[in-house]
Structures are given as structure tokens and as C-alpha cells.
Amino acid sequence: MAHYLNDISRTFSEYLLIPGLTTKECIPNQISLKAPLVRFKANEEPAISLNIPFVSAIMQSVSDHKMAIALARNGGLSFIFGSQSIESQAEMVRKVKKYKAGFVISDANLTPENTLADVLALKEKSGHATIGITENGASDSKLLGIVTGRDYRITRDSLDKKVKEFMTPFDKLITGEFGISLAEANDIIWDHKLNCLPIIDNNQCLKYFVFRKDYDSHQDNPNEISDADKKLLVGAGINTRDYRERVPQLIEAGVDVVCIDSSDGFSVWQKETLEYVKNTYGDKVKIGAGNVVDRDGFLYLAEAGADFVKVGVGGGSICITREQKGIGRGQATAIIEVAAARDEYFKKTGVYVPICSDGGIVQDYHMVLALAMGADFIMMGRYFARFDESPTRKLMVNGNYMKEYWGEGSNRARNWQRYDAGGAEGLKFEEGVDSFVPYAGKLKDNLDITLGKIRSTMSSCGVTSIIDLQKNGKITLVSSTSIIEGGAHDVIVKDSRNNG
Ligand code: RVP
Questions:
Q1: How far apart are CA 257 and CA 298, in angstroms?
Q2: Ranges for the CBS domain (predicted)?
């Protein structure tokens, strides 16, 4: 006979937090959201910590280098998607590690032989008004000029006019030398009344642009997470097939932590991957594993050497694994059981292996619940996909701006390695959907609101840190009737936009 678990699979919306005594110590701006990312021994500090307990999902539609830069600057970390060639993933990692505040690698470039039509198409696609004109159209080849809106008139110029006929050529450009500081670049911008300063190396190759408008926004990022060389931290997803080739190239590119990405991580392939990484690199390379939803799965991966373990099967907003395969577990129940296993493992071994709640966060308060239930940090896809910094297109759908968001198990992503159960290569059936999510603007603006809410909830709970919340938070199950009581009820709401 199969084993029956006595619990019910529950999710976050079925719980609420009970307020605790709020003292003067737990006012929102004194609350720490610092979280360990990787395993550590009792009385030691983890080698990597997050300043906010958020990581972005290992997905094509969520985590590229731009998301990674934006999130690390705000205290969290991205895992750059692994469902791409090793070379392009390593290149994204390199872009994050090369990032210098205010110095932007140009991602809109053409050659002098392109046409005005190409300029307009690229402007539309990239959203950038400044286009680097380089010898071969690459972002790091010889700079021959730039094109901005001041260089052409759509009403007068024909669309097949060559870029070389209207660009501002190199000899008319003011440039900065590779290696100058942001303050020096800004002095040049101010002295020459420029909007944009190209930074070039000794061979006249384009390295960066510095934009006048960026200066102020790069002043305050107190939460930024960086390595000993002040370079932003970045993670990357790997799989259990090509890790022998992928991991070395990601390390060479400067990755700080990798994570095995799988919808079902309780497998011997994950153990083999962990063993390979640990035997090859010892403790120098940090590696997470998952996903699991119970004690057995956690212990298996922790014992195999995982630096953190991801929890969640089937709860992702774009995920249909539960419908397709009938496997999974309510995210709250999964976190509660795995957190208990982590604490048990810590007691027994003196080693703390952080757990990550992955998928299924819909409301901001779900984040606090996940943390209170024992998650050390949270992975989100849908949440981040809505922002400017995610890699997908922004489209107008039925009068509203939307961003595209698709699952790694959808036909669009074709990330069969994530769903690999051995045997032949390839995606056998879909476990994810292709969707839209409402466009929400800049990551930082949204994050500020979310973090404000989390701090406010923690303040109400009378706690000052995530550990404090996990030790002293009080959680209650809610009945379906009392859920109705939690929203506006028995009134006619005037403006439905405030009803969220
Ligand atoms: P959500 O934040 O609810 O959008 O969930 C994101 C998570 O969903 C990812 O981190 C991953 O674990 C899972 N995912 C990604 N693709 C798919 C799929 O196609 N089924 N699921």
C-alpha cells in the first residue's frame, strides 16, 4: 500500500500572522532583512549573504544580466537562466561582473553601413535613443561614431540613408578614456554639456557609455551586494547533463554561486552533480540544489553537499506540473516540513543549510509568511518578470501594458534539462505555460514598496530580523469564511484599483 501523509497540502493564502508586541526596537527602518545564501557552521558567518531575502528565478523570461545587475544593486541576487548555450550564459555572467555603476555596456549598436530604417527598428526594439556605431556592430568593437535623435529627421531623411551619412563621426565626439572614474566622466559630461560620454580603450574600442541622467540614480544603493573586488554578485543555473562543461566556464566568467535547476531535485543526478562540483572545487564553488518538498528530499541533497536547497514543486504561477504529472505539494506545507528538517540537520551536524522558497508568491504578505515558516530566502519569477529589467517584451494588450512571462517547461523555453528524468533528450510534454503579466515599471520602485510592507508586517509581529520572525512569529490557519473577512466586504468599493 502507498504511504499516506496525514497533513493537508496548504499554501500561503491559508495562513495569517498574529501581531506581537511592537517595541521601539522594531520600527520598520531598524528591521534587518539580511539572509544567509549558503551553508555555514554554527558560530561562523556564511560566505555569501543577501541584504534582502530575494533571488530571481532561473528563467529565460526573468533572469538575464540586466536583472542580475538591478537586483544585486538592491541587495538580492539573480540566477542567470541556464537554458541557453554555455557561451551566452557565461557572457551574461561576465557582463554582471564587469558592471561598474554608471558605466553602461551599449546594447544598441550598428555599423556605418546600416540604414536609418535599421536605426529606427533598433530604437524601437531596445528602447535606447543612443546607438553606438562600431566597425562590426558589436558593443566592444572600434567606435566610429554615435547616432542620437539629433542626427536625423524622420520627416526629411529617407529610410535607406546610410548611417555613415548622418552619424556624429568619431572625430567630432568627446570621449573618455577607459579606466576613468565615474566622477571624472561626469566632469567631462558637465564641462562639454553632453548627454552621453563614450568610454574607449587605447584601440578606440567602445567599452561603455556614461549618461548624464544616470549620475544621480547611482548615488545611493546601500544594500548592494558585491565581492571583495567590489564587483556585483551573480548566480547561474546549471543542469545535471552538461555540468562538466558548463560549471568551469561559468567559474571562469566569475560566477559567485551556481544552482542546479530542476522541477524535481530529489534525484541521483543531482547527487552526482553536487559530488562532481565539490570533488573538483572543494568549498570554493558554492552550489545550490533542488527542488524538493519534504524532509527526505532535503536531507538527501544536504548530505550530498548542497550549499542551499530550493523548495517547491508545482506552485509556480506558470507551472502546470501538478496537473500534468500529479506531483507536488502546497508551498506552505513544503516549507514548514523542510524547515524542520533543516533545523534537525543543524542540530545534528552543526551545519546550517539555508532553504529557499521557490514559486507561488502572489501577495507581498506571502513573502513574510514564507520567511516566518522557515524559508531563509525566496525565489520569484512572476514578481520580477513584471519589471523593466526583465528580458522580455513589453506589449499593449487590451489597453494595458503587459510583459511576457513563460515557464521553463513551456514549448517556448524548451528547457528539457529541467524536466529530465533520464533517457532520451527532449521535452516530452509541457509543464509550463506562456503568459502575460501586468507591467509594473522599475524594479527598485516596486521593491521599495514590497520591502516597506514586509518591514511593516515584521514590526507588527514585534520582530527585528528574519531569525527573530522564525523564532517568535505566530501563525494561524484561516478558515475560508474568514478569508472573506480579510478583504473589503459588505461595502460597495468606489475604486476597484484600491481593492488589490
Ligand atoms: P512564480 O514566482 O510563482 O512565477 O514561480 C517561479 C518558479 O516556477 C521558478 O523559480 C521555477 O521553480 C518554477 N517554474 C519555472 N518554469 C516552470 C514551468 O514551466 N513549469 N516552473
A1: 19
A2: 167-225
- Compute the distance from residue 317 Cα to the ligand 1 centre, in Å: 6
Query: Which pLDDT tens digit goes with each residue over 60-96?
Result: 999 999 999 999 999 999 999 999 999 999 999 999 9
**What is the domain range of residue 126?**
103-220
Regarding whether 229 and 216 lie in a shared domain, the answer is no
Q: What is the CATH number of the domain that holds 116?
A: 3.10.580.10
Cell of 35: 539572509
pTM of the full predicted structure?
0.85
- To the question of whether residue 257 is assigned a binding role by annotation, the answer is no
Cα dihedral: 169, 174, 178, 184 (round 10): -160
445 annotated to bind ligand: no
With respect to residue 420, please indicate whether it lies within any of the assigned structural domains.
yes
Q: Is residue 499 part of a domain?
A: no
Residue 312, annotated as binding a ligand: yes
pLDDT band at 220 (very low <50, low <70, confident <90, very high): low
Return the residue whose CA atom lies nearest to atom 10 of ligand 1: 57
Among 121, 183, 102, 85, residue whose Cα is nearest residue 417: 85
Domain boundary among 220, 240, 265: 220
Ligand 1 pocket (Cβ < 6 Å) reads: 57, 59, 312, 316-319, 321, 358-361, 379-383, 407-410, 431-432
358 plus 457 within the same structural domain: yes
User: How many CB atoms are located within 10 Å of the residue 321 CB?
Assistant: 21
Domain boundary among 204, 220, 236: 220
485 lies in some domain: no
| 196-211 pLDDT, tens digit each | 999 999 999 999 999 8
